[in-house]
Amino acid sequence: MNTAPLTVTQPVTLELIDATGASTPIEAELQYDPRDPYAVTTVFMTGSSQVRWTFGRDLLTEGLYEPSGDGDVHVWPCLDSAGHAVVIIELCSPDGEALVQARTGDLSTFVERMGKAVTPGTESELIDVDAAINAIFAAEAA
Q1: For position 102, what pLDDT does the model report?
Q2: Contact 118, 111 (CB under 8 A)
Q3: What is the C-alpha to C-alpha distance for residues 131 and 135, in angstroms, rounded to an integer?
Q4: Is the pLDDT at 118 greater than 90, yes or no?
Q5: Number of helices and strands (H, E) in the chain?
Q6: Is 109 helix (H, G, I), strand (E, B) or coil?
Q7: What is the model's pTM?
Q8: How far, in whole angstroms, is CA 44 from its chain's centroid?
């Protein structure tokens, strides 16, 4: 019997915020794969292609309640122009940056499902450290 936790996915509509504050809806999918238990991925559907951003699951979880993140990804709670609860996600790369907002309820649902798949604090139980070290040595030897 396979007892491995299942991958969690959830389609969401995000709003891409431009420099003037105007927003454009963009379809995306949130993904959590217990094989990489510390990470969450957002896949942005940009016409015929996809853009993937992977960052720490704790950033998303903490960002629901307080500003979180250092470096390339920042997440914080906010209110949109109509007074609705949203979460802002700022993504930075050498090619530019993007500011998107998501409804807090959508992200809360995803975080809850992610927590049921892998209880926060138990992520390390899913990592085979010996296999990871062997893979590093094998890559260096190649």
Answers
A1: 96
A2: no
A3: 6
A4: no
A5: 3, 7
A6: helix
A7: 0.83
A8: 11
